Amino acid sequence: MATNNPPLLEVRNLRVEFPTRRGTLLAVDDVSFDIAPGEVLGVVGESGAGKSLTGNAIIGLLEPPGRIAAGEIRLEGKRIDNLPYEEMRKIRGARIGAIFQDPLTSLNPLYSVSHQLVETIQTHLPLSASAARARALELLKEVGIPGAEERIDHYPHQFSGGMRQRVVIALALCAGPRLIVADEPTTALDVSIQAQIIALLKKLCREHGTAVMLVTHDMGVIAETADRVAVMYAGRIVEVGPVRDVIKHAQHPYTKGLMGSIPSLGVRTERLTQIDGSMPRLTAIPKGCAFNPRCTARGERCLVERPDLMPAGASRAACWLHDARGVGAPVPLARETVNA
Amino acid sequence: MPEGSYVHIEGLKRYFDVSAPWLVRKLERRPRQIVQAVDGIDIEIAKGETFSLVGESGCGKSTVARLVVGLYPPTDGRIEFDGNNMATRRKQGAHSTLRRRMQMIFQDPFASLNPRWRVFDIIAEPIRAFGLSKDKADLEKQVGDLLEQVKLTPADGRKYPHEFSGGQRQRISIARALASQPEFLVCDEPTSALDVSVQAQILNLMMDLQRRLKLTYLFISHNLAVVYHISTRVGVMYLGRLVEQAPTDTLFRRPKHPYTRMLLDTIPDLDMTGRQRAPVAGEVPSPLNPPSGCSFHPRCPFANERCKVERPKALPIEGGTVACHGIEEGRIPIEDRSYTARG
Ligand SMILES: Nc1ncnc2c1ncn2[C@@H]1O[C@H](COP(=O)(O)OP(=O)(O)OP(=O)(O)O)[C@@H](O)[C@H]1O
Ligand SMILES: Nc1ncnc2c1ncn2[C@@H]1O[C@H](COP(=O)(O)OP(=O)(O)O)[C@@H](O)[C@H]1O
Ligand code: SF4
Ligand code: SF4
Ligand SMILES: [Mg+2]
Ligand SMILES: [Mg+2]
After folding, report:
1. Confidence (pTM)
2. Are A112 and A176 in the same domain?
3. Which chain B residues have a beta carbon less than 8 Å from that of A164?
4. The domain spanning residue B93 has which CATH number?
């Protein structure tokens, strides 16, 4: 948590587009954020908000026809969004590690875990086969595989889900990356195993100064892991701030609704707080503030003018409520708001 | 069957044979492999209540759900529904009236709806199958009403499932499940595939419908906070067995079984009180060869010699039951846990 250091990762005005027959879809719209060394930035938001595309843009794995249409991404000051494929591939293994939701997408079922680790290590580090194997074993121990000596030569299917995700983390760590982009790393795992993986990611940040971009829709995971949180809605960041502030003093009406809809222990109510309606499709993003059709605080200004991030409490939020001119005359919600 | 019991499940077992084919087994000298997915479970559900099952992946929750609605025949044990023994009724052919009265909602709203059917026909199918409508106009009215019950519109009936979001599709599955006017709904992780904000909408809808239509739920989830909100009673499963069951407040406030306590410790702390989730020791053992005695003993901090050899029986305590030698012997202290309310 060293927020005064220069950023390790800088994302500026990132736009991700999909050209389609019926026009261009804007899936990530003018997204900017930084991550400092050793910092965990949580990225939350409901399915389709643009979290994964933002992560994939950073690691250079946008699937065509998706493309970065504008903006810059810098790692340790150097631009990485416009590099040729081969150069980006090297950076991806060596300086940026990637962890995905399903550990099986990152593991080859035909090769033993030792084979895959040794191969990755040797791609990025000038080590002999035996030195690489020793490092592989060390990594497996570090990520907490019990009996690593016996299990190193096993195949992925011989590991449980939680163990496989640890192997994937070991793979991502092979070359000592500066940044890890983890997209829903615990979503497929049981809560009990989730806690172990989270503890492991935090240890890495602490001990190696690795920065982590943690994409998830699980606020519990964010609460325990992240230093700062960015909340995405319909392709944009609507709120970003220190984790405590975003969770306990949400500033954007969407964040407030999101926090309220999470069932928590201790208070049992007849109904959970719910945000009526659903996130707009990319083909039908409303004018003005994209959240306005669901927002009970909206005013006339919200229907025409799109808010950018602005200071709001200890955070920043894209909402006219935090602007000196306010939202304008109130506009009640349409009654037929469709439910998600 | 005890008084007040509406769904009565006794000694329920379901084993799966997952052995390699006979020839392979002989050639490679491998033994038969049997998964004891559900290994002797007793549950009572009273009318109008929500009984929830929780537990880690693979502990047998979905198998119980499928057994209860009759998608699998049990290996052993009995299931009674409103005084009817399901196995006997199946033989007598009186099964279909009972089937009408219980329906199931699945986790994946994408896989459980036929993509080639319009929503109208998806919802009308059970009404037609059980002959519940007088004529075409009546059928249309029923489907329209069902769509409105789940906060969609009759006009949505003309669309296909792919035109809806995940939450809307789950609403369609609920409308379909309600179409045969059931009293008992078995819901297997109905919100696990949904975002939290959509989950809140669906849970609110399910609670509203329960009150309005006097439904009884068997609810399955691995999300303890969700279970806390919607359940009357909760059962905790571990490796095919029910290790503890209790009224919801008792279970969360005074958990007794060491496994229940471990599960509660894994709930993430949104209050940011600084409480760390206890990193759980070990993982769920393979159900192919569950540990002897109490199957939780390799992960249990209170395990002793008796735990390794003798399977604990479910004994009544504080309005629920617990299967644990340590609790029975009084060597595990039972304490109140406190939860801080949020906000
Ligand atoms: N048809 C089947 N054939 C063989 N084994 C099965 C079958 N269905 C379930 N099992 C096994 O039975 C055990 C219990 O499975 P079940 O699907 O009931 O778990 P669950 O508690 O619902 O888990 P999850 O939370 O992952 O949905 C598992 O070990 C599973 O692999
Ligand atoms: N190949 C594609 N073609 C068109 N639209 C896409 C494609 N991939 C993603 N999208 C859209 O971009 C938006 C953001 O997607 P994504 O980043 O995956 O969301 P999430 O926040 O769930 O990770 C969604 O509306 C999604 O439908
Ligand atoms: S800008 Fe207006 S519509 Fe958007 S979140 Fe703020 S108040 Fe609501
Ligand atoms: S029976 Fe023994 S091993 Fe099992 S939970 Fe109780 S104390 Fe632990
Ligand atoms: Mg995603
Ligand atoms: Mg299941």
Report:
1. 0.86
2. yes
3. none
4. 3.40.50.300
